[in-house]
Amino acid sequence: MSGKEAVQEVLHGNQRKRGKFLETVELQISLKNYDPQKDKRFSGTVRLKSTPRPKFSVCVLGDQQHCDEAKAVDIPHMDIEALKKLNKNKKLVKKLAKKYDAFLASESLIKQIPRILGPGLNKAGKFPSLLTHTKTCLCITFTWLSTSWCHLLKKNWQNVWALYIKSTMGKPQRLY
């Protein structure tokens, strides 16, 4: 099955079963001759050309520099003083977690967040992602996948057993 046919099948399966939530599409990579106990683990981020959720709201929990940068581009932000005002109040932390879809936290602040806010964000599954002052970001497009991610594997494409594309509730479709 070609890539285009697999995508059409995933989208067609998605239309048959309508859920009351927004489904995502995943690219799953099965590896062979790869032992996660011995071999190094890797992870990365992919920047998409379009936003998967148009009304995705993010809050920056940052130091002064990150708060200034967030303010300049009109992104909601909180500094350490604003976080301390919440004073581990479970209701306020829960309200904060419901208000935003994701959180980004400065390097200097991320270790203090559990102490300041308690377990509220973690329980909601919204523990902040790390926000650094360096501007490096690993960005690849779907078609560029063969040259950028495979160098992390010992034998490049020979370590890839299969590629699957699937929606949250749909059946996986094999691409490779």
CATH class of the domain at 58-142: Alpha Beta
Q: What is the strand arrangement across the widest sheet?
A: 3-2-4-5
Could you estimate the helical fraction of the residues in percent?
A: 25-40%
Q: Could you give me the name of the CATH homologous superfamily of the domain at 58-142?
A: Ribosomal protein L1/L10, domain II
Give the helices and strands as they follow along the chain: HEEHEHHEHHHEHEE
Which class do the helix and strand fractions yield?
alpha/beta
Largest sheet: 4 strands, parallel
Q: Enumerate the spans where pLDDT stays under 50 for 5 or more consecutive residues.
A: 135-148
Round the mean pLDDT to the nearest integer and report it. 72
- Total number of β-strand segments? 7
GO cellular component, one term: large ribosomal subunit
Pfam families: Ribosomal_L1
Family: Belongs to the universal ribosomal protein uL1 family.
Protein name: Ribosomal protein
Write up this protein.
The chain has 176 residues and is an alpha/beta fold. It has a domain at 58-142: Rossmann fold, CATH 3.40.50. The protein has helices at residues 3-16, 64-72, 80-86, 90-99, 107-110, 113-117, 120-123, 145-148, and strands at 25-31, 58-61, 77-78, 102-106, 129-131, 160-167, 173-174. Strand 2, helix 2 (64-72) and strand 3 (77-78) form a beta-alpha-beta unit.
Structure keywords:
3-stranded antiparallel sheet; Rossmann fold; 32% helix; 7 strands; 4-stranded parallel sheet; 176 residues
